[in-house]
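1st attempt posting a full record on here, be nice pls
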Amino acid sequence: MPDSPSDALATRRRRLLFRATHRGTHENDLMIGGFVRVHLAAFGADELDALEALLESPETDLADWLTGRRPMPDDAPTMLRRMRAAVMAGGADRTGTQTAPPPALAPPGGPSPQGEGEAVAP
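the predicted structure (as tokens):
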């Protein structure tokens, strides 16, 4: 007996979740997997297609784009832009729990994290 469309969709979602959480680098597992875990159930067929295409991207490119180490290409797909926005906003961790964004680092030569002129105890 052939799978029903809903069974096929559920199988597709399970496979995508596995791919998103087993990327090969822990950093991408957390960023991509956290985003997918939170949003996957609401994705329609077009969004699933977009996610599948994005998951074909090289690991280093995804990590660099999502963390802001490199600017995203001008023609970056909407799914990548959504994922980056979620990561920059704190997104979600591997379990789907909302997390705070990483603390901002002071620019080189900028004020120290303690503030200007504050003494730091040894």
